[in-house]
Amino acid sequence: MPAAVERTLLLLKPDTVHRGLIGEILSRIERKGLKIIAMKMMALQDSLIEEHYFFHREKPFFPEIVKYMTEGPIVALVVEGDGAIALMRALCGATDCAEAAIGTIRGDYGLTIRYNLIHASDSAETAAVEIPRFFDETEIHPYARKILE
């Protein structure tokens, strides 16, 4: 039985943008059969970073997260497909690039645990909170795949 159609939020972090890896990562997502139904480049404000990473707010490394996420623009995406959440988490690889498997985004391109390229929602509940944080419903464009002749 196929997995349910899900939506997940992805953030291509500043190191992805700076290193010219946006196209490579988008290509991997589409080659997995997932659809990109929303996408925008944006500079994050401290308030949005604090809201998004609230669970790290009291940790000593939180100022480093804020600094990292404001070093340049990010690309925010909504990705849709069968089992999209688990599929994207597997495609991303372990958060610590040193532990990420070769063939994953972090395993192939990640430099350090700090510069780990990408964020992906970890559950349907998280995605339901994260997607509206970055996208208005009018910015999300579901579509059916079809071959054009």
Note down, in words, how this protein is organized.
This protein has 149 residues and is an alpha+beta fold. The chain contains seven helices and four strands. Helices cover 37% and strands 19% of the residues. It has a four-stranded antiparallel beta sheet, sandwiched between helices. The longest helix is centred in the last third of the chain and has 11 residues, at 124-134. It is globular and about 50 Å long. The termini are far apart.
Keywords:
149 residues; alpha+beta; Alpha-Beta Plaits; 4-stranded antiparallel sheet; 4 strands; 19% strand
CATH topology label: Alpha-Beta Plaits
Helix share of residues?
Answer: 25-40%
- Written as H for each helix and E for each strand, in order along the chain, the element string is EHHEHHEHHEH
**Radius of gyration using CA atoms only:** 15 Å
The CATH superfamily appears as Nucleoside diphosphate kinase-like domain
Distance between the first and last residues' Cα: 31 Å
Number of domains: 1
Mean pLDDT: 92
- In spatial order, strands of the major sheet run 2-3-1-4
Q: Which sheet architecture does the biggest sheet show?
A: 4 strands, antiparallel
Structural class: alpha+beta
CATH class descriptor: Alpha Beta
Number of strands: 4
CATH architecture: 2-Layer Sandwich
Shape: globular
Strand percentage, roughly? 15-25%
| pLDDT < 50 stretches | none
Alpha plus pi helix count: 7
Brief account:
The chain is α+β, with helices and mostly antiparallel strands and about 150 residues long. The protein contains 7 helices and 4 strands, in the order E-H-H-E-H-H-E-H-H-E-H. It has a 4-stranded antiparallel beta sheet, with helices on both faces.
